[in-house]
Amino acid sequence: MLTWLGYFERFGKNFLRGAGVTLELTAVGLAIGFVLGLLLALARCYGPKWLQQLAGGYIAVFRGTPLLVQLFIIYYGLPELGLTFSQNMAAYLALGLNSAAYQAEYLRGSINAIGSAQMQAGRSIGLSKWQTIGYVVLPQALRLALPSWSNEPISLLKTTAIVFLIAVQDLMAEGKRAATATFDFVGVYLAVAVVYLVMVFALDALLKFLERKTKIPGMDVETRR
Amino acid sequence: MDFGQFISYIASGTIYTVGVTLIALPSGLLIGTMLALLYVYGGKTAARVMNLYSTIFRGIPPIVLLFILFFAVSKGINLSAFWAGSLSLGMVSSAYQMEIVRGALLSVSGDQLMGARAVGLGRLQAIRYVVLPQAVRLAIPPWSNEAAIVIKDSSLVYALGVPEILRKAQLIGASSQRYLLAYLSAAVIYFLLVFATTKLLNMLEKKLAIPSNP
Amino acid sequence: MPKPILTIKNLTKTYGENVIFQHLDLTVNEGDTIVIIGPSGTGKSTLLRCVNLLTRPNDGQIWLDDMEITAKGTDEDQVRQHIGMVFQNFLLFNHLTALGNVKLGLTRVKKMSDEAATKKAMHELARVGLADRANHYPGQLSGGQQQRVGIARALAMDPRIMLFDEPTSALDPELIGEVLEVMRQLSLDGMTMLVVTHEMGFAREVADRIVFMEKGYIVEEGSPDEMFNHPKFPRTREFLWKITELYGKKEKDAE
What we know:
Chain B is mostly helical. Chain B has 7 helices and no strands. Chain B is globular, with a radius of gyration of 20 Å. In chain C, strand 9 and strand 10 form a beta hairpin. The chains are: A mainly alpha, B mainly alpha, C alpha/beta. The interface between A and B is large, with 36 and 43 residues.
């Protein structure tokens, strides 16, 4: 029953290497997603009408279709338009573009919560619209968004597990290789699941710690699983 | 490759995608609801076990859990990839749906349960006639979100060889060398399915809403 | 010879180290309206919940008529049918209309036919002056109307005694009167009532006896005249003076 514990000894090194790639994918995806997500949120809240609709459309499309399809479009489809990416680059892009849609919603929620009152207050002392956004609204909105936003790194970490399907060498790819070598699919994937669980719990503890450090009570925005 | 063939491929894939969702979502709801009832009304030990179940299932990437369940199920009983994959996906979703139902039960329970008991209703009667009817309504919006996720996650059974829309798109892309068109078509189908489901559940929510003055 | 409906003997309730009340004795006779007053946090609401078996006392006995309801093996649901309870925050079933709220116990507990239950429920709604609101949902009713539905819901079960747990303290001042009026009428009709309230006007006018509770003990009990005009204990006088002052002010502010 517990033979799968032995796989840590046999494949431990490979799992660790794969886990490293998984964390890298998470970090890069999160970073791209944050920058693009922030731009989307600002476009959605403060842009001209057409830009608001464009950002809204982007968010709806990326949240309304599976990441796997987005990944395949980027990796297999875009080369037809002359845009060819390496496996890792395609994975970074898909994760980042997808995460941006979710992060934009978290940020939009908190920007709206800060509301027009703070905008008026900023304008009343002579700041321009974008100065007010930069110096008054965003500093508050980013801190306010943290509790709900902190779901995103964990969610993204779990989401990265599909990119082995375009042969990125992450933890799941190492798992698949080990499974094919042993023919014990259930056992190997159980071992892989444990590694994911450890990463998820560690990340969760880290985020909870950060959240406590910067806690602002009384704010909650819809969260993604 | 001609246009008619393209359409028929996409259509047959869509049917599988809908089928996977229609199996996974209700089976996840059934398991999730039973587990949630155990969690909320089953005493401390049950609550601990359910909490562990929820933490572990929700901590593992869906595709990893899907693989474990799929291969475990396939080992035990002889099921087609379609059924084994759909039921496994339902199990994956069950932990999330349990949390949705639990949240709804908890936000109704306390006071409403007491009000019902005070009238003389038994515990089960109170849950059946007072808590559940209200919990169902509260659960619709988050459940609608979960339904959308399950539709999207149904694409994961692609990796198990189920001929759903993504697999069909891959096949047709390979034969025509027009991957972009094939995958974009799949994306459109997914988007429409998610959109229609969300709209439908939104209408249901409005229809079931309890009248009140603003 | 007055017939006791509710008899409480030596009742004690604690939450861990926290003593809510102890060695409490109280008798409510048929047709009496007893009003319990006292500072908040002195166990008045917990006492009512003990009587309705919504929470279990740690020690002591409670009798309803001749039956000890705190005895082991008592069918709680059976007991609660005979004890009507009205809550501070109404606790109406939000997914049911006023009529549905009153009917639920009749159809599901008393197993009455739908037709008979509707008839009975309409009668009770008429009694609290809400026959015309029967098909409204709680969310469409004012607080005072919701509380009157709560009273009708409890009355429909034909209880031996009605318990009121601060029935007006969640209401806006202008809505308190309609609820108190329903309660006053009930008392006149001979219903046995045990009421926890801060409404001193109601206590003075309607109560047969007033019980002053503080820190888990009954300090003093007596007729309204005795309590308001000749209290035996300085604490009673002090409390009554304070609360009349406080609520009197509130009423003025509301005007």
